[in-house]
Structures are given as C-alpha cells and as structure tokens.
Design a protein that fits this description.
- The protein has 1 helix and 9 strands; from the N terminus they run αβββββββββ.
- The chain is mostly beta strands.
- The strands form 2 sheets. A 5-stranded antiparallel β-sheet has the order 5-4-7-2-9, with no helix packed on it. Strands 1-8-3-6 form a 4-stranded antiparallel β-sheet, with no helix packed on it.
- Strand 4 and strand 5 form a beta hairpin.
- The radius of gyration is 20 Å and the shape is elongated.
Length: 148
Amino acid sequence: MNTSILTKTLASSLLLGFCLYTPASFAVNLNGALGSAAGAIDFYRVTCASNTNGVTDNLKVTVRNLAPVTSPLMSVQVIKGILAKNTTDAVNADTTLSPAAIVKGGNGVYDVRVNKAGAGAENYALTYACLNSAGKATGATIATVQNQ
C-alpha cells in the first residue's frame, strides 16, 4: 500500500514538473522559398514585445538552406533602426543552421530579409526568437511584407 502512495506521489510530481516547465528560449520556425531570379528577396517584419518574461533585449535569427541543392548560398539580414546584422548558411541542404544574427534593439519592429547569392530557386527554414537579457522568450509576431 505504501508503494502505491509513493508511486502516485512520484507520478503527480513528475506531471506537475512537466506542466510548469518553461524553456529558456523559444524559437519559431518558418519555411519559405525564393524564386529563381538572382535578386529574389523575402521580407518580413518581426515585432518583439514584452510578456511575462519581461522586455525584449534582442531578436535572434538563423537561416538554413533546404533542398533543392543549387549553387546560391542563403543569407538573412536583421535590421532595426541603425542596427544591423547578417548571417549566411555556408553549406546547402545540410542540417546545420547559419550562425545567429543577433540585433539588440529592444521591443519593437525588426526588418528581416532573406536572400541568396545568385540565380536558382531555393527553399529555406528561418528561425527567429525575441529574447530578454536572460535569454528567455518574449512576445514575437511576424508579418510577410514581400514574398518572391
């Protein structure tokens, strides 16, 4: 009988722990595609806002070039006011993300542009997260401005 109580207590504690768990950061994934034109650019606006984790310190963005494997490399630029960062996925269609582009612009609207280094249709995975100074997720919404 004591074993049954212990088992139920342990199970309840584990369930409660899983329900209360909040990851330190929460990144959002967005799949996109660029057309075959060399100058194709997808343009997004990410809005970072305060939530229960506090105010936004930065927007962190990565990109990963997906199949089909053609020659152009994928890059992403993050811009807020006079602050800007760029990062490039150096290997086509692998499982590794680009290094992170982090812009410390606080709450507000960030421009995010995805482009490629030449002609050829390409698919990509864009990952973004608005984070506070401790690396915890703050509010994030995204709007498509241009899809080429």
